[in-house]
Amino acid sequence: MDDEVGKELEKADSAIPVSTRAEMATAIQVLAEQGFGRNEISRRTGISTFLVSTIAEEIGVSFDRSRIEQALRARLTDLRLAQMGIAEGLSEDLTFARLMLRTAKDRRDLAFAAKTISDLARAAGTLTPEASEADSLEATADWLVDFRNTLGKVREEFEQQHGVAFDSDEARQIIEQQEETPNGESQIP
Questions:
Q1: 3-state DSSP assignment of residue 132
Q2: Structure confidence by residue, pLDDT tens digits, 120-136
Q3: Which of 24, 83, 133, 189 is least buried, going by the fewest C-beta atoms within 10 A?
Q4: Is residue 158 part of a domain?
């Protein structure tokens, strides 16, 4: 069974065969949208990094480092969630194995259940991610950046809609008037 899993992993990790330039362009576009960088796209497709760069330029794909980092963070988050799901499943299996241990009828069943519990506990412990202070700080920093960007968009929309600077006295009056009207709808045309 382990050999089958190994073969599946080799297939999944092997290069995607592409032959025509259109297939290359499609593969590059799809992988770039998923947040992969030039070198990783080259590795996955078997296309040289020079050709990846050339085709990417032709189809309007740029390798923005911040976008790639954001996609990488999202992929890592997805992987952590999947890892946590597997760890939860292993914990359920551990409960079943403990039941097997309690109901063992002979030494062989007892030894099998004990070995199973040991293996499952080790695997669950390995797969259970630990939350660190750095993770919490990074998540908070990301939230604050998103919050700042959202506030900037709200400010821009307000200024476009009302034609006044957000920090002006007129803006303050508009906001106060909106707060006084039902549903926050502006009475100013």
A1: coil
A2: 888 888 877 676 666 67
A3: 189
A4: yes
Last residue of a domain, one of 87, 105, 127: 127
Q: Are 87 and 127 in contact (CB under 8 A)?
A: yes
Q: Which domain holds residue 148?
A: 138-184
Q: Which residues of the chain have pLDDT under 70?
A: 1-19, 64, 66-68, 129, 131-135, 181-189
pTM of the predicted model as reported, rounded to 2 decimal places: 0.38
For residue 132, the model assigns a pLDDT of 65
The answer to whether residues 32 and 64 touch, using CB atoms and an 8 Å cutoff, is no
Whether residue 132 lies inside any domain: the answer is: no
Which pair of tokens denotes residue 69? Answer: 């980092």
For residue 96, is it within any domain?
yes
CA distances from 15 to 12, 24, 28, 47, 76 (A): 8, 12, 13, 9, 21
